[in-house]
Structure formats: C-alpha cells, structure tokens
Amino acid sequence: MQQLTAPEVATLIANASADKPMLLDVREPWEFQTCHIEGSVSIPMNTIPAQIEQLDRNAPIVCICHHGMRSLRVASFLEANGFGKVINLTGGIHAWAQQVDTTMPTY
C-alpha cells in the first residue's frame, strides 16, 4: 500500500490515462454529500466487505475518508484481500480541501 499526500493524489489523477485510479470514498453518505472529490465513488467503510466484488482487484484504488484513518483501515483490508494497487490519501478529504481545492466545503 502507498501513502500519498493530497497534492500527490491530484498529480496521479491528472496524469493518469489508461490506468486511471478508482477514487473510493469510504465516508458516510452525509459526509460524501457535504463534499467529495469529483469522480469519486461512495462506498461507506462498513459496507466494503459486502461490496468487495464490485471493485477491480487489478486497478489502482485511492481510498479516501475525512482525515485518513478509516481509509487506511480499508486500504489495509483491500490489500489483505488481494488488491495489488492500493493507495491511502494521507490526511483525507480535509487535506485535499486545504492543499488542492480550497473552495471545497469542510466539516
């Protein structure tokens, strides 16, 4: 698993062509509605085990939460279940709002 900062993830997204990462937002639905990175998919952390088959084990997946702790747990879970290209957004959506998109609402 990789740990990337918000600017590093922004660069990864901008430079990705064929191997574009899935942006997996593991926060609760109300959190996702408050703010999210464009193109991200909302699958709350507690539903990941039941929905794991919806995820591509070979595609890069960036796990996102509020501050980076829930996403770290999900990233570890995915890695333990055979996902090879897992990335945790260090600092979560909060870091993204501070370092990449300062117009994004925070909570």
From TrEMBL:
Q: Which InterPro entries match?
A: GlpE_sulfurtransferase, Rhodanese-like_dom, Rhodanese-like_dom_sf
Ranges for domain Rhodanese = 17-105
Q: Which SMART domains does the entry mention?
A: RHOD
State the name under which the record lists this protein.
Answer: Rhodanese-like domain-containing protein
Which organism is this entry from?
Answer: Oxalicibacterium faecigallinarum
